[in-house]
Design goal:
129 residues; 60% helix; 2 domains; 7 helices; Rossmann fold; mainly alpha; three-stranded parallel β-sheet
Amino acid sequence: MIAIDTNVLVRLLVNDQPIQGKASQKLFASEDIFIPDTVLLETEWVLRAAYGLGRIEVCAAFRRVCGLRNVAVSDGPLIAQVIDWHEAGFDFADAFHLALSKGHDKLKTFDAGFIKQARKHTDRRVERP
């Protein structure tokens, strides 16, 4: 199994550079792939900020790639939860922070939007310090 960097995943998803896009497609077609959490986090930012993709498009792309038989992530149910929360309105990074903080009593933040979204989607305690 091989791990990939953000640029490999982005090339696969947007195919804006034909040579690198083909190389990414070939890699995904021939190897077992591990996508680190940090690559998913950075890829969401790149797709949103550099390519103007919306949350529905990003979530669909992540589901498509993470659902491939030869693709592994650190924790499938956790990543699925992050994608679901993001699709429902959570900021992707905030959804990741909350999902990764499972098992802890509280998550502290100054971000009022994060607190509001957390209250809408989970019973986990997210609050101001």
